[in-house]
Design goal:
Elements (H helix, E strand, L loop, with lengths): L2 H6 L10 H26 L5 H22 L6 H23 L4 H20 L5
Organism: Sphingomonas trueperi
Protein name: Four-helix bundle copper-binding protein
């Protein structure tokens, strides 16, 4: 089942489901998982990866919270949703910058996912009013 369909089935949404918001929520969920996995892989590296672990875990938490808020449609709090999307963009940018400093494939994949997630959140912001 698709996230778009689930949101569209909500009584307060119906045919007006926001596909861009659903896409941002889906990528935020995936980004949370990628960041968590990258942090775990960083722990296993022989070099000091503390800052990367911290940044990845912070980003994972922000992304997970953003995905949850984006899929709640009853009694929406638009100001809160916009704040979370903006925070997710910044957390993803910071995580991508940190991961880009390392020559590990898991960091490269994480940075790519963070950039995609930030782009999706940025794209949906103008429609969240």
């Amino acid at each position: 089942m698709s996230l778009e369909k689930m949101i569209a089935l909500h009584p307060d949404v119906g045919a007006d489901a926001n596909e861009a918001l659903a896409k941002a929520a889906r990528h935020a969920m995936l980004c949370s998982l990628m960041c968590t996995s990258c942090a775990d892989a960083c722990v296993a590296e022989e070099m000091d990866m503390r800052q990367c672990v911290r940044t990845c875990l912070d980003c994972a938490d922000v992304c997970a919270a953003t995905a949850r808020l984006a899929t709640r449609r009853t009694g929406q709090n638009i100001a809160m949703l916009r704040t979370m999307l903006e925070t997710c963009i910044r957390a993803c940018e910071l995580c991508a910058e940190e991961c880009a400093r390392h020559d590990h494939e898991h960091c490269t994949l994480c940075a790519t996912m963070c950039r995609e997630c930030a782009g999706d959140c940025r794209a949906v912001l103008p429609s969240v009013q």
